[in-house]
Amino acid sequence: QVQLVESGGGLVQAGGSLRLSCAASGRTFSPYGMGWFRLAPGQEREFVAVITWSGGFTYYADSVKGRFTISADNAKNTVYLQMNSLKPEDTAVYYCAADLNSITWYRFLQKVREGRMDYWGKGTLVTVSS
Hints:
The chain is mainly beta.
């Protein structure tokens, strides 16, 4: 089993920054990729950003491009989400997720778009005040 634990959420004013972390533990951890998703009140869960574990290829939702940066520290089994220029519409619970089974970029993106990652964290709340 794999456990994913998010941290770093909180309350911030619009225009501010936060850095989320997600630490993975459990079985030997070698995912194809990891990423961040978010769930805002009254909305469906949406993908935010993902990164491949090997090569560090990234993919972002249009709504966060240029403001958010995803990165990974393989040695620490940790993925980060640096969020800058935060907006009230970024308010949501942010979830970390891991894909351990994809073997191609295409398959990985398919699972990301469908929200069918293999492991999920419990989430961390980000609140952006106006």
